[in-house]
Please model this.
Amino acid sequence: QVQLVESGGGLVQAGGSMRLLCAASGSTFSRKAMGWYRQAPGSQRELVAAVGSGGETNYADSVKGRFTISRHNAENTVSLQMDILKPEDTAVYYCCVGERYVRFTGRCHPAPTWGRGTQVTVSS
Model:
């Protein structure tokens, strides 16, 4: 059974940095898309960033140039480095992984498994 556990959330001031880490277990992940989504109160879950098996990446326009997603296949982890954080980045951040290999679509696909999420709060 695939399990994803996020860590690294918390409270940070605007302009600061934070790194999220997702540890995956229960399968092999090197050929599957992985990513991060977020959900703010009253909003739908949205893509933040995703990375394909070949290292290709896709970012939401709102985080381009500020966030960096990286995968570390030897450790079965994926990280999200977040810089120049803004109050509007406040949300619960969820890690995800696709069910199997498909050509990279820019998101966690298909049939993603989700972590339980970690809260990121950016104060102004």
The mean pLDDT is 96. The chain is about 0% helix and 50% strand.
